[in-house]
Structures are given as structure tokens and as C-alpha cells.
Amino acid sequence: MTANKPLRDQQYMADNGHDTDWRLFRGDGRAKTITFPEAPPWRRFGRYEDRETDASHRNRPYLIGPQEADVVNAALLLRRPLLVTGHPGTGKSSLAYAVAHELSLGPVLHWPVNSRTTLQDALYRYDAIGRLRETNMNRELDGTAPPDMGIGSYFRLGPLGTALVASESPRVLLVDELDKGDVDLPNDLLNVFEEGEFEILELARLPEDQSSVRLMTADPGQWTEVVRGRVHCSEFPVVIITSNGERDFPPAFLRRCVRLDLPEPDENRLRAIISAHLDPQDDSAAHGTPELDDLMQAFLARRARGELATDQLLNAVFLRRGGVDLDAEGLLDAVLHRLARTL
Questions:
Q1: Which pLDDT value is given to residue 310?
Q2: Among 97, 145, 184, 281, which residue has the fewest nearby CB atoms (within 10 Å)?
Q3: Does residue 149 or residue 335 have the better pLDDT?
Q4: Domain boundaries for CATH 3.40.50.300 within the chain
């Protein structure tokens, strides 16, 4: 170890519940039984069956400046989509979970966008082939028509469709990385956002005696009643759209959004974020500690030469506090990678 490493000594690590040897894998081919240490707070997950109701792995502390918070409030009051831009790692997606948590609006409906995404995917899906296959299979088994399972069993609302179901409180819908979608997708969304409703054509065509149909939502185990094929919100959902700025959006779409550009956090904000995530009962990180100072300065120096994400600094601090015996530069080399192609 070099003399300028501000590392904790063996006694400090033992007193704080850390093993003096942080290495789990040694690469020597010798099998052993180990106990994994506790994961970082942002990488802890509940049981699978509890995840839809217990989103504690997402409800991490989220710090935002008063000016940015005012923009969020403007979108909430105007019932307009919030278009959030900023460098990767500035907390764009996390903002949706923070709003849902603080306002007690339930689980976030997540719509990740890619180049193959369509509006139809987000509204609903109808398994017409599955319905036909099941009908034919049952007839082949006993030669009779199967009991009517209900057409609603073959529908499932997508995240946007579920967000537009009438409810007492609005749902939070995260449209993640809209700029990765097809160029026409923002325009396709305009009518749905303006009207707050959409039509399921397959249900709208049913006879009058089948006008009311129960179908599944994007929430596991939850169903909703749809009348004459129309889904109409009573409260416009809290729509948070993220973009990494890979391309521009149409002016008509931008006019209908409230826009928020998240800045990169400065040193004071970074220290507060670290304290909130790793020391929720102790704000010493916000005031500076020897084990953090060298990492902070190295991170800021590297970020000035190219884009780096805040969660990368959190990872480095977590490893340092877990006893990883690397200096600041070596530790950052392990977890920090430029997000931009060039400096």
C-alpha cells in the first residue's frame, strides 16, 4: 500500500462489521463455502412475490434541487407529461419512483422504450392466436365446444393502458428513454395524452349484451371492467418521460410537455446523496471524511474530462467502506467508465 492511501485500519474495519479480507473470489480453483456480505442499498431486492407491493428496492433517498422540484410540481398541477433530460446517471428514471413514493401513488408503471416499441404495446395486447388454439384444442379433446372463458382472458393492458384506467388517485407512468423509439412514436402519443383515453377495437365490435368485459391490467392479479371497449382515465396519470438526448422530438410533442433538464450534481449534492444512501442516520459524509475526500476529488476530476454517473461514485464509496484496499485511482478504475465516446 502507498503511504497516501486514506484506508481504514484493521481494527476500524472490524469495529464496523467488515471482514478484513474483502475478496470472495480468488481464482485458485478451490471450492469453499462463503457468506455473501450485505449488498449495496440500491441493489437489494425483496422476494419475487412481494416485489409488486414492496418496492423498497426502488424507494431509495432521492435528492433534487428546489428549482427542479418546482418544475416537477408544475407538471403535476398542469396534468402534463414531464419530459426529463440529462446525462446518464443524473437520476432521470429514479425521479418517477421518488414521486410515486413521496405522494403514495402505488407501484410505478414502467414502459421501457426501444427501437421496436409501438404505441399498441403500451396500450394493450390481445392473444387472438392463443384464444383460437385453446378453442380448437378443447374441441379435439372431447368433440364439444369448450365453456366460454371470456374474451377478456386473452387481453392484457400495457403500462400506458393501465395508467389510463379510471382510479381515485393518478398512477405514475415511467416512459423510459423515449428517444430510443421510432421517430413517429412521440406523435402517436399525442392523441392519447390529450384525450386521456383509447379504444380497444376488438371489444368495441362486440354485441350490446357483451359490452362490459373484465380484462387483466399490467398489475399482476388485477382486473378492470371495460365498457364498449373504451378505457378513460378519471385522473390523468403522472407521466414522466426520460430522454438521453439522442435525437430531438417534434415541436407539437414538446409543446404538450413540461420540460426538466437535470444538471449534474455538484460536490455538495454528491456528498448529500452519498450520505442519504449509505449513512441515512449520519450526515458526516456531507461534511467530508478522509475515506471519501480522495474518491470525491478523483471523481470530480474525471467527470470534468467526460461524463460519469453518480451511481458509479456510490459504487466506489461502497467498495471502499467494505474494505477494498485500492487507492482512489485504482478503485475508480475498477468501477468508473466514461459514458461518452470521447473526452
A1: 83
A2: 281
A3: 335
A4: 66-261
The model's pTM: 0.79
In terms of Cβ atoms closer than 10 Å to its own Cβ (0-12, 13-18, 19+), residue 244 is: middle
Q: Which long-range contacts (CB under 8 A, 24 or more apart) does 9-14 make?
A: 13/323
Q: Which of 102, 81, 109, 137 is nearest to 256 (CA)?
A: 81
CA-CA-CA-CA torsion for 112, 67, 304, 288, nearest 10 degrees? -110
- Cα dihedral value 105, 107, 112, 117, nearest 10: -80
Mean pLDDT of 107-112: 96
* Confidence tier at 321 by pLDDT (50, 70, 90): confident
From residue 337, give the alpha-carbon distance in Å to each of 279, 329, 333: 25, 12, 7
In this structure, is the dihedral angle defined by the CA atoms of residues 263, 265, 269 and 272, taken in order, positive or negative? positive
Contact indicator for 226, 123 with CB cutoff of 8 Å? no
Is 337 exposed, middle or buried, given 0-12, 13-18 or 19+ CB atoms closer than 10 A?
A: exposed
The distance of Cα 158 from the centroid of its chain, to the nearest Å, equals: 16
Mean pLDDT score across all residues of the chain = 81
Furthest-apart CA pair in the chain: how many Å? Answer: 84
The domain 66-261 having CATH identifier 3.90.1300.10: the answer here is no
